[in-house]
Amino acid sequence: MSIVTPYKDNSKSKKEQVADMFDNIAPKYDFLNQLLSLGIHKSWRRKSINLLKEFHPKTILDIATGTGDFAIEAIRLNPDKVVGVDISEGMMKLGKEKIKKLGLQNKIKLKSGDSENLPFADNSFDAITVGFGVRNFENLEKGIQDIYRVLNNNGTLVILEFSKPKKFPIKGLYNFYFKYITPFVGKVFSKDNSAYAYLPESVKAFPEDFEFINILNKAGFKETKAISLTFGIASIYFCKKTQ
């Protein structure tokens, strides 16, 4: 699997570049998410969290939490606590402000954390969520293995990630939008020329569907399945840690 980085002429690791990228675009991130997805990302997030309802998780970890939207959505499950981790301090600063405005600071804690070396003990969480973050992992398999480590036995993992539509005409429209519209709009509003060009490149390089399911299974997950969303623009990956 090829490693795609945001800044081509930069000697930093992918992890460091991703952190820099999100720090750069943090002030406009929520606005651009809403604009570029036409608000559809909210329904995707709801569907992802709804998959956890029947399991009544009391401790939830949100990886690549960014500005905290997934962590905030998880409050609907009435957990005892939600912890969000991210490598971008700029994104989490905005997330903490958002959480404080909603009065959820006693329920949700955001902390700096590397997805491949999570700062938690084994079997720490009943459920783990990752929204649009796994394709940014520097070492995808290592990241998935560490997620498995900190998830409780019988715990549930839900990953929401972009995918590539396969059917005409959605495939062509999607490719045009992602290749031309997304980078242009991102450049205009975020002032980071590379960040929104990286988005379609990272989606293209990501091992989706059965290839990603195989990575989850290799890490030890069971009952693994992929749920296609909105003509295949995104997918939810659902799996369990069972002994």
Could you give a short description of this structure?
This protein is an alpha/beta fold and 243 residues long.
What would you note in describing this structure?
The chain is of the alpha/beta class. The chain has one domain (14-240): Vaccinia Virus protein VP39 (Rossmann fold, 3-Layer(aba) Sandwich), CATH 3.40.50. The protein is built from eight helices and seven strands, in the order H-H-E-H-E-H-E-E-H-E-H-H-H-E-E. A seven-stranded mixed sheet has the order 3-2-1-4-5-7-6, sandwiched between helices. The radius of gyration is 17 Å and the shape is globular. It starts with 13 loop residues before the first helix and ends with a strand.
User: Order of helices and strands, N to C?
Assistant: HHEHEHEEHEHHHEE
Overall structural domain count: 1
Helical run tally = 8
Percent strand equals 15-25%
Helix-and-strand structural type: alpha/beta
Please report the first level of CATH classification, the CATH class.
Alpha Beta
User: Terminal Cα separation, in Å?
Assistant: 29 Å
Look up the CATH topology.
Rossmann fold
Strand order of the largest sheet: 3-2-1-4-5-7-6
Q: What's the β-strand tally?
A: 7
Helix fraction bin: 40-55%
Overall mean confidence score, pLDDT: 92
Q: What is the name of the CATH architecture?
A: 3-Layer(aba) Sandwich
Low-confidence stretches: none
Main sheet: strands, sense, barrel: 7 strands, mixed
- Would you identify the CATH H-level superfamily? Vaccinia Virus protein VP39
Task: Indicate the radius of gyration in whole angstroms.
Answer: 17 Å
Give the overall shape, derived from the CA principal axes. Answer: globular
